[in-house]
Amino acid sequence: MAVETNDIEWVVACAASEIAEEDVIRFDHAGASYAVYRIAEGFFASDGWCTHERAHLADGFVLNREIECPLHQGRFDIPTGKPKSPPVCVHLKTYPVRIERGEVLLGVPPQAKATS
Fold first, then answer.
1. What is the three-class DSSP state of 54?
2. Domain membership flag for residue 109
3. CA distances from 111 to 7, 31, 84, 92 (A)
4. What residues does the Rieske domain cover (predicted)?
């Protein structure tokens, strides 16, 4: 289910109970792939692909506020997408997340629908 406003489309990524704390899952929508995280501060989302090489971050390792890429072990800050260790040096795009009725909703740009 998706709810669209002028600048964002809210889509259900998963049930909140599907993601354990300090974990990540993959969510694909309209031709784009995302990583949805649960850390002590709450739920977060980013582009699913590492900015260094084509590795999906949902295959990586979450520790505290960081996701480690499974390919070359570069790390990103989950809430901000900021690169934390080489070889990653390009920020990871992040997306708004909210929880409603036990579901994790991801805010994606409406134009993402046109890419499907």
1. coil
2. no
3. 9, 11, 30, 19
4. 11-106
**pLDDT tens column, 63-81:** 989 999 999 999 999 999 9
For the chain, how many structural domains are there in total?
Answer: 1
56-64 LR contacts (CB < 8 Å, sep 24+)? 56/26, 57/24, 57/92, 58/24, 58/25, 58/26, 60/24, 60/35, 62/22, 62/23, 62/24, 62/37, 63/22, 64/22, 64/39, 64/40
Per-residue pLDDT of the chain (116 residues; tens, 9 = 90+): 555 455 899 999 999 999 999 999 999 999 999 999 999 999 999 999 999 988 999 999 999 899 999 999 999 999 999 999 999 999 999 999 999 999 999 999 886 444 43
What is residue 56's DSSP assignment?
Answer: B
Q: What is the span of the domain harbouring residue 88?
A: 15-95
pTM over 0.70: yes
Residue 1, in any domain of the structure:
no
